[in-house]
Design goal:
By secondary structure, this protein is mainly alpha-helical. The chain has a single domain, classed as Amino acid/polyamine transporter I. The chain contains 21 helices and no strands. It is globular and about 55 Å long.
Length: 434
């Protein structure tokens, strides 16, 4: 993977202003796109995993279209955050974990990595729980499928071609393109959809704020920034590749959020106003306009691909971050002997996630709960990201401009504000004031 961009050297050294000409030039540009594109798209779309789908579907079932404007704001936040992450990777040649270690104290580095590990542990469990829930829709008990799934994901990364598996999981996840179709066939009230997309809607209830934090957590997850930056570095990208990397990050974020919006709208049209989701079968019901009685089958197939993709990406992001902070070898192209800490952490997370996912737990509550935890931790990681991209000593002219710095600060303050409100409400509830 570290040699993926070697073939683009001639493109990178082309004199400024000279464009590739003819068919050969177009193929060369396509090859460059194929070589660079990936980390941003994979990182953003991994958010549309089992937990993400459960959270978006629950938003539609609880508040119909009431969270749409909020999701538009979250989309803007994700675009900015992902762009900053890949910019750091491209211009420094280092992942977020390594940069935090170099630019901050040991305690602050430990805080960042501790938050990431805490959030990712819950996520890995939720991914295997999502795989189990998908197969239960097909009549297969989770205890019969989770261990083999864990072994398969582990083997693909350690011994197989993770990049090949990544593409397969992405293709399986494309099943969720059915949500835009289901949204249209479900005949939602387009006037209400349009107004909720542009007019702010807010409810001061704890349930609404809890869901809002969960939507932030599943869309702007901390692991996405670590994975996106590390993925750019692992591919050997250079500053001259930044335009394509930036396009990949932005398009990936927008694509993922458009799918998220259609999940909310499709679910709202199907079961809006019925309250929180109770099962995966309820989430699948939003696909009935497309698949009819086979809605659960279609949903299960997509859920398997989405959960498997995130089941590999999430533990890899933590392994990248800790490997970077420790200054040791970290790459999926290395053997266990060459990168024992990196691959050992990946193995431990897979094993723990699979074991916990087989316990008798409420899958939907677990999935949404992990996103709330992500939302509470996101502001901490975003502060590190904002400080790093503001530093000219690190990025030079590629550092945040004054306007970008203000906009990014507003994003971090907004995410932090939602998390703080939820924490205050929770603490007050403990003392009977909620």
């Amino acid at each position: 993977m570290t040699r993926d961009l070697d073939t683009t050297a001639t493109t990178a050294t082309r004199p400024t202003g000279e464009r590739p000409r003819g068919l050969k030039g177009r193929w060369r540009r396509l090859a460059l796109v194929a070589a660079v594109a990936g980390p941003g798209l994979v990182a953003a779309n991994a958010g549309n995993d089992a937990a993400g789908i459960a959270t978006y579907a629950s938003a539609g079932s609880q508040y119909t279209y009431g969270t749409l404007f909020f999701m538009v704001l979250v989309t803007v936040a994700l675009v900015m955050v992902q762009e900053m992450a890949v910019r750091l990777g491209a211009y420094t040649g280092k992942g977020l974990g390594a940069l935090i270690r170099e630019q901050f104290s040991l305690r602050l580095t430990a805080l960042a990595l501790g938050c990431l590990l805490l959030a990712n542990t819950g996520l890995v469990v939720s991914e295997f729980a999502g795989i189990g829930a998908a197969f239960e829709l097909l009549g297969v008990p989770k205890w019969a499928v989770i261990p083999p799934a864990a072994l398969l994901l582990w083997s693909l990364v350690l011994f197989g071609s993770y990049r090949y598996a990544e593409r397969i999981f992405l293709l399986m996840s494309l099943v969720f393109f059915a949500y835009p179709i289901a949204m249209i066939l479900g005949h939602p009230h387009w006037g209400n959809v349009g107004s909720h997309l542009v007019v702010p809607h807010f409810e001061p209830s704890k349930a609404f704020i809890l869901l809002g934090v969960a939507l932030i957590g599943t869309t702007v997850s901390p692991y996405m920034q670590f994975y996106a930056a590390a993925g750019v570095v692992d591919r050997g990208a250079k500053p001259e590749d930044y335009r394509l990397i930036r396009a990949d990050a932005i398009l990936g974020a927008v694509f993922a959020c458009v799918i998220s919006l259609t999940i909310i709208i499709a679910t709202a049209a199907a079961i809006g106003g019925t309250g929180p989701l109770e099962s995966a079968a309820q989430a699948a019901s939003a696909l009935e306009p497309v698949a009819g009685k086979d809605a659960e089958l279609l949903f299960a197939f997509g859920l398997i691909g989405a959960s498997a993709l995130a089941g590999a990406v999430v533990p890899l992001s933590a392994s990248y971050a800790i490997g970077e902070a420790a200054g040791v070898e970290r790459s999926v192209s290395r053997s266990f002997r060459d990168a024992p800490l990196f691959l050992g952490l990946f193995t431990a997370q897979i094993a723990l996630g699979a074991v916990v996912a087989m316990t008798p737990i409420n899958v939907i509550q677990l999935l949404i709960g992990t996103q709330v935890l992500q939302g509470l931790i996101s502001p901490i990681v975003l502060i590190y990201l904002l400080i790093l991209t503001n530093r000219r000593s690190l990025l030079g002219k590629a550092a945040n401009t004054p306007r970008y710095r203000i906009a990014a600060t507003v994003v971090v303050v907004g995410v932090g504000g939602m998390s703080t409100i939820l924490l205050v409400q929770t603490v007050l509830g403990w003392f009977g004031f909620g």
